[in-house]
Amino acid sequence: MSELFPAWPLMAAFFVASLALTLTPGPAVIYVVTRTLAQGRPAGLASVAGVALGNLGNAVGAAIGLAALFAISSLAFTVVKYAGAAYLIYLGIKAWRAPAQQAAQTQFAPARLTRIFRDGFVVALFNPKTTIFFAAFLPQFMQPGAPAMPQSVLLGAIFVVIAVATDSIYVLAASIVGPLLTRVRSAGAIGRYVTAGAFIGLGVFTAAAGGRGAK
User: Fold this and answer.
1) How confident is the model at residue 129 (pLDDT cuts 50, 70, 90)?
2) pLDDT score recorded for residue 42
3) Buried b vs exposed e over 204-215: b needs ≥16 C-beta within 10 Å?
4) How sure is the predictor about 75, in pLDDT bands with cuts at 50, 70 and 90?
5) In the chain, which end has fewer C-beta atoms inside a 10 angstrom radius, N or C?
């Protein structure tokens, strides 16, 4: 197992680079913060878990060569990218049409949290830029003499764990700010429109942006 880890100086560089990338606000951070502000801390943490599982799936996909498929097939990349963007826009439209009291709700039954987890998973998994990011980022910290696939999966899993920690910090911060916003009159309706706009805007951004990083 130890041969799958890079030397400590390189491993330290990997931790620092991963922490810097995950702390930088991006689509994943916007997504979990939006969920938290709209639906409370449990929904935000459920979204973090779903996004983490989706990102881990992308790391495994990169390890088995899915990134290479996207690199040589513009059609495959385009189909998956726009499928993910369409799903985000769908979530935005759904939030826009939801009753105000539903948008302001902060407690959910387990089934509801399961659906929120699923949404986060789908949003993260259907982002081919994440797979390409892993394929470009992880090899810089891999040892040439060790098997490539286990190293890629291991480093990808470590990156996802770091992302879970930083995303959870964003969720906790947003959950503190959220209750203050609910004290403002009409904040429920305003929050619903902000949530919808964030999801739709994120979907449009995902469809229009070039091949950038996972976060």
Assistant:
1) confident
2) 93
3) eebeeeeeeebb
4) confident
5) N
Report the C-alpha gap between 111 and 129 in whole angstroms: 30
Residue written as token pair 């801390």: 41
Q: What is the pLDDT of residue 109?
A: 45
- Mind giving me the DSSP string for the chain? -GGGSPPHHHHHHHHHHHHHHHHS--HHHHHHHHHHHHH-HHHHHHHHHHHHHHHHHHHHHHHTTHHHHHHH-HHHHHHHHHHHHHHHHHHHHHHHHS-HHHHT-----HHHHHHHHHHHHHHHHT-HHHHHHHHHHGGGG--TTS-HHHHHHHHHHHHHHHHHHHHHHHHHHHHHHHHHHHTSTTHHHHHHHHHHHHHHHHHHHHHHS-S----
Which range has the worst mean pLDDT, 3-17, 36-50, 104-118, 129-143?
104-118
**Are 95 and 199 a contacting pair, CB within 8 Å?**
yes
User: What is the residue extent of each domain of the chain?
Assistant: 37-208
Q: What percent of the chain has pLDDT over 70?
A: 74
Per the CB < 8 A criterion, the answer to whether 124 and 50 are in contact is yes
